[in-house]
Structures are given as structure tokens and as C-alpha cells.
Description:
With about 110 residues, chain A is an alpha+beta fold. Chain A is about 65% helix and about 15% strand. Chain A has helices at about 1-25, 25-35, 40-50, 55-65, 85-100, and strands at about 40, 70-75, 75-80. Chain A has a three-stranded antiparallel beta sheet. The first copy, chain A, is elongated and about 60 Å long.
Amino acid sequence: MGAVVAEENVLAASQASGLLKALADPLRMEVIQSLSEGECCVCDLMKKTDLAQSRLSFHLKVLKDSGLITDRQSGRWVYYKLDLKAFQLLEDWIADLKKSCKNAAKPCS
Amino acid sequence: MGAVVAEENVLAASQASGLLKALADPLRMEVIQSLSEGECCVCDLMKKTDLAQSRLSFHLKVLKDSGLITDRQSGRWVYYKLDLKAFQLLEDWIADLKKSCKNAAKPCS
DNA sequence: AGAACGCATCAATTTATTTTGATATATCAA
DNA sequence: TTGATATATCAAAATAAATTGATGCGTTCT
């Protein structure tokens, strides 16, 4: 039983690690910030973030692969938006982590 | 005023980015998990994580530089522990981010 | 004092991530 | 059909992060 819990933690940790890694970049953070205003097409994101097309596309892919954002195509345009479920997941994970740290301040024997 | 707020966000974002980056690594996550049980010296962390001394030391430095953990020396040993303030900061930041994403799901015009 | 221990740091190498410029693909407009 | 636009993808180069083994430094033990 302990083992199962441990394994679940490892799994959750590696999932969370993926989200964190995608989020832990200033450029991608800017993209997230832009998308926090609402769904947006790549060309508008280029203007907002002042990134070259290829570069932006790369970071959008990282974010999309992580699950933090989703895309939808409409005609020539591709629209990206945040996937709030992923953010909720992340928030829950951190809250759990913090909860599990109740003894963290206890000095060593 | 808008500019000031924007600048504050950028600053907070880059701060958060540092924490996230440090946290977004499976090995460091393991270390954090070990430390969540309480303060621990490097030699015990080595046993718990099964990492070579130099490698562990490197990751401890990354975590320490980010502010997620602190250290204290006592005799020959160095004890590390989580800095819960940093975790609180991170949780708050994510909560804020999520809050600011209320319009994020709104489709583009 | 000398030896062993616990840990940090450094240089060299390996590995991973990011950037850049070029090219490809699909859609739309003329 | 031809040309332009929006975006993705690819390969090469640049940059950054991690690993390894060696060495150094302070502390304790004998």
C-alpha cells in the first residue's frame, strides 16, 4: 500500500514536472500571459510578444505538448488558448506538495 | 499605472520562473520529496536519492540558489531543508495566474 | 600531527534546449 | 491558376544545463 502511494506520487511528480518545465521559461510565460486575455491567433501573438514566427511556433509547440494550451485551426489561422484544466492540476499539485511538507521545518536529530 | 502593474507582473513572472525552473526536474523533485519529511544532511540525502555526491551537490545548489531550500552547517555536516515561504509564494503565484485567466477560454472574435 | 570524513567546487565532456534561416504546406484572394 | 498569407517543420548552429571524476577545504578522530 505504501508502495502504491509512492508510485502514484512518482507518477504525479513526473506529470507535474512536464507542466512546470514548459511553464518555467520567460518567453513562454509571456505567451501564457498574452493568452490569459483570451484565445489568440499566432499572428496576433507575434505582435504581442514580438517574437519571430519560427521561434514563437517552437514555444507554442512546447506549451501545446505539455498540455498547457490547445489549438484550433480556422481557415488560414490557428488559434491558441490556455487549457485551464492543466492550470488547475498544477495548482492542486503544488497545494498537495505544500501540505506534504508539514514536517519540512523540523530540524534533524 | 497600467505600465507599473505590467512591470510588476513581469518581475513576478521572472521570479516565479526561477522557482519553477528549479522545481521542474525529476531529480530535484526527488530531493524535494525527501526533504518534505524534514531537514536532512547531504550524506543521508545521498542514500535516499542514490545520487553521486557531486551530482547531488550540484542539484542542491540549484535548489538553494532558487530559494526553495536553505542550508545550515553543523560540524562536518550540512543540513538542508525546504523553505516553505518559497512554496507558498509559488502557490500564490499560480493561484493568481489562474485567476487572471478568467477570460482565457473566450473564443477569438 | 596525520588520517579520514563530509561536502563544495572546478574543468572537461556529454546531453538537452533554443535560435535561426530556409523550406514546405495549406488556405485564401485575384 | 498564380500569388500572397499564415503557420509548421527541418537542419544547422548557438547556448545552456547536467554529468563525471578530480581536487580542495574545513572538521573531527586517533
